[in-house]
Specification:
Blueprint (H helix, E strand, L loop, with lengths): L8 H8 L21 E7 L25 H14 L2 E8 L1 H10 L4 E5 L3 E4 L3 E4 L4 H9 L6 E4 L14 H10 L3 E3 L27 H6 L5 E3 L7 H10 L4 E3 L3 H4 L2 H13 L6 E2 L9 H11 L6 H16 L20 E6 L3 E3 L7 E8 L6 E10 L6 E5 L2 E3 L12 E7 L7 E9 L9 E11 L1
Parallel strand pairs: 1-2, 2-3, 6-7, 7-8, 8-9, 9-10
Antiparallel strand pairs: 4-5, 11-19, 12-19, 13-18, 14-17, 14-19, 15-16, 15-18
Length: 452
């Protein structure tokens, strides 16, 4: 969410926090909380003085950040990561700060550039559209892992504007997740540094033509599309590849308003695509408020909380979850383990008839490898018996959830010892059974995980 300038803090406070006195209940109480593993899918690597020197206080708590250097600001957020069991942070900002954040938490942070509108210290509103060549280099070299947060709404640009088309095309080509700002912004934004900001450009339904043109685009809409509830539900019911984060609204709105909005999304059966985020900028205490907003939602089951906190983002990002889960939540992955990407562009067999197949070959070095797994992202249509997978001619069962839904899913399958071999290996996908109607499958990604 494009960020809060010091000169309109009072206005924002009055608009959203008229019931601030009742918000004391939003303060987190970790003594009564279970330590869910958490992915913060929407945070920011910002300079400590982004909104002024000294920094302005948190709008809700009134607490002023203590950081007076970029290093102190990063460390303050990392402390909250440790406190609330945030195993991975996904954030954006200016490139130099993203690099600095990554250097501090190399294995617990993935980043992107916030564009085209951003605030540069101190309270300087800027607009820059990064070159496609620059982005391609940053993605292909692994320096960046997401696109955005794209803050086009602040530049007066709607999601379906031709200016954004080349960026969406690049993200689809390289299979880069996209974070798009939607919904609202700070009150009086057109008068406070963003003269082209328009609420209508934050309507998630404006993404529809983009999704039709780019069916393999991995995109999540920021801030839950708030306050466009009906439009957000309509978009996500139709296009099941779309996810959302609930950052910012989980601590800026009153608890009652946020819970009502979240509960309606859950009632619409969108609970498997809602991801936790904080929109943490320079106020680390926003992290605990965001966590407590989920923990205090009595209408959520523990399984639903786990989905929001971790599982949905892990699926969307196609993570090897064993890298991030420990103890009762899973086993940790040794730091010297290796992931081999086998398929990075779509392998499609649709339409198809029984017997049709696709085979890919790859080479492996298995010296020192103790266990292996395969991570598959894709979807099948019509029935759970259509697609079969063979690794070196041995059948490996695909879980039902990946072959029975139009929405892409990611699964990790542990492999028995001896299935993979030193040197050349093959994986074959076979269309085994025609159920009727539109038949076939698409495999969007496949990785081999070698644990040493």
């Amino acid at each position: 969410m494009k960020k809060f300038i010091h000169i309109f803090l009072a206005s924002f406070f009055l608009t959203f926090i008229v019931s601030c006195a009742n918000e004391k209940t939003s303060k987190p109480n970790r003594q009564n909380m279970k330590s869910h593993p958490i992915i913060d899918i929407h945070m920011h690597a910002f300079q400590w003085n982004k909104y002024g020197d000294p920094p302005p206080p948190n709008l809700i708590t009134g607490k002023r950040p203590t950081a007076r250097s970029n290093n102190e600001a990063i460390e303050a957020y990392i402390a909250e990561m440790d406190r609330y069991n945030i195993v991975l942070a996904v954030g954006s900002g200016q490139l130099e700060m993203v690099k600095e954040m990554k250097a501090h938490v190399l294995n617990r942070f993935i980043g992107g550039i916030e564009f085209p509108k951003y605030t540069s210290p101190v309270n300087k509103r800027m607009e820059k559209w990064p070159s496609l060549n620059e982005l391609r280099i940053l993605y292909e070299s692994g320096q960046l892992k997401i696109m955005g947060e794209i803050t086009a709404q602040y530049a007066g640009v709607a999601p379906n504007d031709p200016k954004l088309e080349p960026y969406f095309a690049l993200a689809e080509e390289l299979d880069i997740p996209v974070c798009l700002h939607t919904g609202f912004g700070p009150p009086m934004s057109p008068y406070m540094g963003d003269p082209n900001f328009r609420m209508r450009h934050g309507n998630p339904l404006l993404l529809e033509d983009v999704l039709v043109k780019h069916p393999r685009l991995r995109i999540y809409i920021a801030h839950g599309g708030y306050p466009n509830l009906s439009e957000t539900i309509a978009l996500m019911l139709m296009y099941r590849q779309v996810y959302m984060d609930i950052s910012a609204i989980n601590w800026l709105l009153t608890r009652e308003e946020f819970h009502a909005y979240l509960q309606r999304l859950m009632q619409a059966r969108l609970g498997k695509r809602i991801m936790f985020g904080t929109d943490q900028m320079i106020w680390p205490d926003a992290v605990g408020m965001s966590v407590d907003a989920i923990e205090s939602a009595t209408f959520l089951t523990e399984a639903q909380k786990r989905d929001i906190f971790f599982e949905n983002a892990a699926r969307f990002l196609r993570l090897d979850t064993s890298k991030y889960l420990t103890g009762s939540f899973g086993k940790s992955l040794a730091p010297d383990s290796e992931t081999v990407k086998v398929i990075s562009s779509e392998l499609r067999l649709r339409p198809a008839t029984p017997g049709d197949k696709r085979t890919v070959s790859f080479n492996l070095k298995l010296t020192g490898v103790k266990s292996t797994a395969v991570q598959v992202t894709g979807f099948d249509i019509d029935g759970v018996t259509e697609t079969e997978m063979f690794i070196n001619d041995q059948k490996v069962k695909l879980p039902a959830e990946i072959v029975a839904d139009m929405a892409p899913k990611t699964v990790i399958i542990e492999l028995k010892k001896g299935i993979l071999k030193e040197g050349e290996n093959t994986i074959t996908f076979l269309f085994a059974d025609s159920v009727g109607g539109t038949t076939g499958f698409s495999i969007l990604g496949l990785k081999i995980m070698l644990r040493k």
